[in-house]
Amino acid sequence: MLYSKSFINTSRENPKVAECQSHRLLLKGSFLYMVSSGIYSYLPLGWRVLNKINDIIRQEMDSAGAQELLMSALQPIDIWKKTGRDKDLEEVMFRFKDRKKRELCLGPTHEEEITEIVKRYISSYKQLPFTLYQIQAKFRDEPRPRFGLMRSSEFIMKDAYSFDLGREGLEENYQKMFEAYKKIFRRFELDCVIVEADSGAMGGSVSHEFMVPAEIGEDILYFCQVCGKYYREKEKCSSCAGIAEPVKTVEVGHIFQLGTKYSQAQDAFVLGRQGEKVSLVMGCYGIGVSRVLASVAEVSSDKKGLIWPKSITPFEAIFLVLDETKTEEIIAIADSLESKGFSLLVDERKEPAGVKFNDAYLIGSPYIIIIGKNYQKSGKIEVEERKSGLSHQISPDKLIDFLKSEYRR
Ligand SMILES: [Zn+2]
């Protein structure tokens, strides 16, 4: 893609509304547009990152055996009355009536709706087990939207739901999701701490949270520097008696063994092996997709700007053409790399070098390829590796091998 044709509109000023590092960088780099407090649009740069995040989630969910669907965002309040959560979640629900006076809400979560869907189609134990998931916008009337995508009124979530005949099956499915989550967060290069958690408004017994240590985190964990363990409560460390210090963390994933809370309330059962009625045993598994985007931006930057992990970068490399006479040659090189599957941005604008570098740092590609005056003499282009700060001199015909090896293709 050519910079001059792109809808990339970085800003030199720090946005006044920015409340933290990720919020500042995502607004400044034109990844996000703030519609209103707690409401955001994803601009082309942000959307590219988000789609890569979604691709990784889909790959890992599918390979764990889950099947994707898409539920409605509009939900009738009637299904919420069955579980009593129309009251429990009353304060955070966006509720209203349509022209026929039907009571509706914008889904803050989807346990009730998925249970209604499943009970319509499933009647025998032979149809179990299975796991369904979706990636969708959710809505919560936040009292205090904060930190951009970290706590917003409309946000994107991946939510999965498993259905089993018994406890054993649930535990097996839960373990599968637990492992899939570890792979997903590793691919985002997020160092997650996994802790046992409170099930809260979701109900059920066992639950685990996936937390990213970050200064703006609103959940506190306690970390023992001696043995590296995390705890929910302040107490000496139970393993080594060291002092566990508080660490702020952001929740990016949460998985729950729900049991039969929803299936009993909504009368969702199957006939078991002896023809007996068995309530469906459920698990639910969430990832805050838009929050992942913000969390990566929060922990993966330096003084110059963002440094996206290779797996979710909007562009795998940015070419800075600083010698105008080479523009066409560089565009041809980039075209041939793009035809081999690399996503590249060529900055061929007639702008000073300083402006181009600054924008490349704001966009946050892991590799910046510099074509300067030196190229004329040496025939080598310079590749700046953002994370390590290393610089490589490479001839253009070796670029494909370099990128292939860096991106392990
Ligand atoms: Zn310890």
How does this model look, in words?
By secondary structure, this protein is of the alpha+beta class. The chain folds into 2 domains: 3-299, 2-Layer Sandwich (BirA Bifunctional Protein, domain 2); 317-406, Anticodon-binding domain (Rossmann fold), CATH 3.40.50.800. Helices cover 30% and strands 28% of the residues. The chain contains 12 helices and 21 strands. The chain has helices spanning 21-28, 44-63, 77-83, 85-88, 111-121, 167-187, 261-265, 289-299, 327-338, 353-363, 374-378, 399-406, and strands at residues 32-36, 39-42, 67-68, 74-76, 94-97, 103-106, 130-139, 154-164, 193-196, 207-213, 219-224, 230-231, 244-259, 269-271, 277-279, 281-288, 317-321, 344-347, 367-371, 381-385, 391-394. Strands 3, 7, 8, 9, 10, 11, 12, 13 and 16 form a 9-stranded mixed sheet that branches. It has a 5-stranded mixed sheet with strand order 18-17-19-20-21, sandwiched between helices. A 3-stranded antiparallel sheet has the order 4-6-5. Helix 2 runs antiparallel to helix 6 and helix 2 (44-63) crosses helix 8. The longest helix is centred in the middle third of the chain and has 21 residues, at 167-187. The two termini are 21 Å apart.
